[in-house]
């Protein structure tokens, strides 16, 4: 058996309707950590009711999002609203390295899950909280949707047309990015614990994740150049043209010619057209700010004669950043992803084999592995509670009482 990168790391996840928490622990589980996911009895994680559903069949066990986010995890049910449930949770936490959750400060106090209390029983515990606005500040107890977080993180300020309603990023990217940030911070805390012999508390704000990642450059420009962020549609304000999505013969491509040499190469590929000599177009930032629609009209006739594949090939050959925008079926059949073995299968008795996106990167000595599909609701109750010392009769009794 090949060693796994995070083998021996024990993680407990307590979250409900949190893509960020589920993705964070998925990243750790897929690298070999033992992750136990705690769900509410009967209903389970709200993500179980998120579309799309396997074979378009709405069902608690068929959410494609849940199936993806919870690979390689063990799943138990536990009612932490009960006294016994909270005692069991603390028992679990005594033997775990990492605790990932999405409780607000008010909820942590209500459920007796404040870090200063938990670390008394487990000084090495690393506890990470992922919430919309973090554990401090005036919004710490607020809930939020993607649109709120996209706006609070500053993304909506620069995305979309000024006359339209604010937009949010697609496919819950806020949750995925926040989960990645939390996984990175958790591993840093784990490495620190190896030398310092103590755990720590990690506070991840989803809004701040976007503010730091997406808006950092804009914030600096605002402070030092007094530039105000604005929504300008397809073309970014005060940025060299082109840096946008364009239509081609069979779809769309993203073209970014950041440096002058890139723009000159692109013009050469177009045959050095006469319009490019117009003095108005000498400064490419001015093109973006004042003449973008006009120049779009000049380059589009050239682009729509070529397919995505032809344009990407031209980009590779000439060191230009040209990327295709692919539909789901094109991604699934992408020759590069298939050759790389990116898509992998996991089997569940109720669904059969399903293909999932695979390793985010390739490790030579401790490879990423997809060992098990997402757990059914309460699938590992017997295993985990027996390991904690509960008898079969205890487990049946706790089930009947609504504790598990």
Salient structural properties:
single chain; 404 residues; alpha/beta; six-stranded parallel sheet; elongated; three-stranded antiparallel sheet; 2 domains
Protein described:
The chain has 404 residues and is of the alpha/beta class. It has two domains: 10-213 and 339-400, 3-Layer(aba) Sandwich (Rossmann fold), CATH 3.40.50; 243-325, formyl-coa transferase, domain 3 (2-Layer Sandwich), CATH 3.30.1540. Helices cover 40% and strands 15% of the residues. The chain contains 16 helices and eleven strands. The protein has helices at 19-30, 64-69, 83-94, 105-110, 115-121, 146-152, 173-196, 206-213, 216-225, 260-269, 284-303, 308-318, 328-332, 335-340, 381-387, 392-400, and strands at residues 10-14, 34-39, 73-77, 98-101, 126-131, 201-205, 243-248, 251-256, 321-325, 343-348, 352-357. A six-stranded parallel β-sheet has the order 3-2-1-4-5-6. A three-stranded antiparallel β-sheet has the order 7-8-9. Strand 7 and strand 8 (251-256) form a beta hairpin. Helix 1 (19-30) packs across helix 7 and helix 7 packs across helix 8 (206-213). The chain is elongated and about 85 Å long. The model has no long low-confidence stretch (mean pLDDT 92).
């Amino acid at each position: 058996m090949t060693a796994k990168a995070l083998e021996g790391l024990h993680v407990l996840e307590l979250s409900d309707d949190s893509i960020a928490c589920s993705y964070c622990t998925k990243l750790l589980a897929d690298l070999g950590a033992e992750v136990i996911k705690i769900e509410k009895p009967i209903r389970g994680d709200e993500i179980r009711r998120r579309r799309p559903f396997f074979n378009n069949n709405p069902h608690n066990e068929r959410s494609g999002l849940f199936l993806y986010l919870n690979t390689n995890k063990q799943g138990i049910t536990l009612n932490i609203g009960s006294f016994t449930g909270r005692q069991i949770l603390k028992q679990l936490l005594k033997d775990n390295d990492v605790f990932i959750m999405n409780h607000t400060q008010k909820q942590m106090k209500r459920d007796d899950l404040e870090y200063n209390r938990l670390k008394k029983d487990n000084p090495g515990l690393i506890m990470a909280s992922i919430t919309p606005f973090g554990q401090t500040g005036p919004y710490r107890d607020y809930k939020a949707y993607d649109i709120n977080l996209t706006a609070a993180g500053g993304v909506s300020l620069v995305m979309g047309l000024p006359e339209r309603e604010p937009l949010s990023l697609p496919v819950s990217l806020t949750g995925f990015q926040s989960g990645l940030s939390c996984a990175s911070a958790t591993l840093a805390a784990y490495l620190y614990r190896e030398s310092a012999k103590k755990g720590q508390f990690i506070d991840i704000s989803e809004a701040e994740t976007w503010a730091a990642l997406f808006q950092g450059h804009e914030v600096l420009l605002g402070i030092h150049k007094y530039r105000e962020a604005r929504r300008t549609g397809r073309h970014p304000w005060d940025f060299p043209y082109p840096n946008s999505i364009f239509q081609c013969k069979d779809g769309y491509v993203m073209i970014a010619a950041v440096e002058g040499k890139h723009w000159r190469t692109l013009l050469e590929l177009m045959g050095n057209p006469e319009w490019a000599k117009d003095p108005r177009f000498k400064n490419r930032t001015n093109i973006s700010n004042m003449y973008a629609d006009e120049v779009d009209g000049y380059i589009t006739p050239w682009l729509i004669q070529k397919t995505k594949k032809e344009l990407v090939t031209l980009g590779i050959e000439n060191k230009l950043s040209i990327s295709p925008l692919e539909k789901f079926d094109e991604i699934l059949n992408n020759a590069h992803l298939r050759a790389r073995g990116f898509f992998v299968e996991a089997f569940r008795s109720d669904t059969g084999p399903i293909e999932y996106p695979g390793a985010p990167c390739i490790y030579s000595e401790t490879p990423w592995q997809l060992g098990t599909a997402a757990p059914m609701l309460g699938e590992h109750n017997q295993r985990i509670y027996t390991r904690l010392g509960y008898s079969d009769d205890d487990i049946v009794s706790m089930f009947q009482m609504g504790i598990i």
